[in-house]
């Protein structure tokens, strides 16, 4: 019974790792890192309640709209970009695109920040995925070992002493598990930071809003679009991913043994 309780104690790190893995996959594949609402140009800003469409931007996706012959119908279409390559990413200088109006044309600062956000999110997803895989292995080993030990206890004589030693390799798996999840959490935080700086602070249209007369709105501007704001991925999914990754690492350290390093004389 004691071993069954010990096996059940491994559920918290496993659950946290599953949640971290799920949220990091949703975040890196989401288009909704940043979004911008567009409104009816005939309306005054004071009447902006419901947008007529919303466009999105992410490290590897740009979603825009195209209107049909019926100007009230807008179709959202998304383009997916690579993480590297000349004129292959979601942000390139005009030297690469040779077009000032391309959706992925930006200045060097903006592109650097977006590339950092994308590359860090790839790194975070990779290490969280590795941590999840190692957590799954540790969980399976814990349950198998608990089941085997319980059977040995049931068949052993009253004077026999059951062997409660777990496999010798599990502390090392746990060490790499915790390291992977910790790296995933840290790089997730950095990806979120660069995402906010790039998609929110450095977007060209956001600068126009911030420098407008009055507070943040200039009623003389002929602009039917609001500012770029954080989307669900940048605001919630990444946050959940690195929080649960950190919780999984902490829970694994509390539940499973770590290697005992011998001191060098």
UniProtKB/TrEMBL annotation:
The protein's UniProt keywords, in alphabetical order, are: Membrane, Transmembrane, Transmembrane helix
What superkingdom does the record give? Eukaryota
The regions listed as transmembrane in this protein's record are 6-28, 127-146, 172-197, 236-256
State the name under which the record lists this protein. Uncharacterized protein
Origin organism is Trichoglossum hirsutum
